[in-house]
Specification:
The chain is of the alpha/beta class. The chain has ten helices and 15 strands. The strands form four sheets. It has a seven-stranded parallel sheet with strand order 3-2-1-4-5-7-12, sandwiched between helices. A four-stranded mixed sheet has the order 6-15-10-13. It has a two-stranded parallel ribbon with strand order 8-11. The longest helix has 22 residues. The protein binds nicotinamide-adenine-dinucleotide. The site of nicotinamide-adenine-dinucleotide (NAD) has 29 residues, from helix 1, strand 2, helix 4, strand 5 and strand 8. Its cofactor is NAD(+).
Amino acid sequence: MKVLVTGGAGYIGSVVAQQLLRADHEVIVLDDLSKGHADAVLPGATWHQGGLAEAAEVLDPSVDAVIHLAAKSLVGESVEHPERYWHGNIVASLGLLDAMRDAGVQRMVFSSTAAVYGNPITETIVEDHPAAPINPYGASKLAIDHMLTAEAKAHGLAAVSLRYFNVGGASDGLGERHDPETHLIPNLLKAAAGRGGTAKLFGTDYPTPDGTAVRDYIHILDLAAAHLQAMEWVRPGTHEIFNLGTGVGSSVRQVIDAVERVTGRTVPVEEHPRRAGDPATLVASGQKARDVLGWAPQHTLEDIIRDAWAHL
Ligand SMILES: NC(=O)c1ccc[n+]([C@@H]2O[C@H](COP(=O)([O-])OP(=O)(O)OC[C@H]3O[C@@H](n4cnc5c(N)ncnc54)[C@H](O)[C@@H]3O)[C@@H](O)[C@H]2O)c1
């Protein structure tokens, strides 16, 4: 297939593009480099540096599918500057949908997020768990999910939203280079390597077995595989949502222990109070993706840490 990957110079988009190329798909990358890195776009891809507003320039009827990862994704920034998220995520995605409709491109896989669920009311989150985002980032992603549902119904779009939980790891030279880095594993690894000062542990009094927050970590290669499977699976006129997680949670302390085991280094950690808006536990049921897409994560938390450490 010929696939447009928006945000293809970013962490997840670059690995999705890499896996598409390896599966012999043709790849166009659209990225404005607001966060991404030009050297993350592989030579096999056609590279268009530009914003989502320029999607019409790269879409034509020969494009079979769009994998839409370009977004602003910092929770804290979204609270302080919500307008950036309404414009950068909602309005920009509407423009992309308009361009797809005009060009007759009818397949879309979208990066949604666990943040749409807000504070979970069940330990394991299934897709029909109430969506009640507690920050503008999650709200902007939920608005796009609603947009896709209506677009599928009204105009026959074949759409899938993949709701990621915590993603980590690296793939052949492509890994996390966020600035600022808000994710736990790269920050622990930087601290272990002596490059990031002391790692911060937020919250030691959660109602979890060791008092620290529990999250569901998934390897970037398992996540990328789900995109390829979803792109093949999508059905015209429908919008399906899949949670991508392993169903198993790890606490922050368990992740720190795993980082120390894998790297053989001690992680300097300082304890802080809970951060506002951080739920105690976020674990996905990946059952629907397993049943419908035939998706099965292959990698462990140790694999994620080992590959991210090699990339550091
Ligand atoms: N990393 C995670 O753990 C995680 C979890 C849940 C959801 N997501 C979602 O996955 C997607 C990718 O995340 P990531 O971690 O790779 O982030 P990232 O910041 O590394 O990648 C996003 C890319 O999109 C580009 N971009 C942003 N706005 C753009 C615009 N308007 N036009 C063109 N390009 C634009 C950026 O330059 C960047 O290269 C995002 O949509 C994010 O919300 C990520």
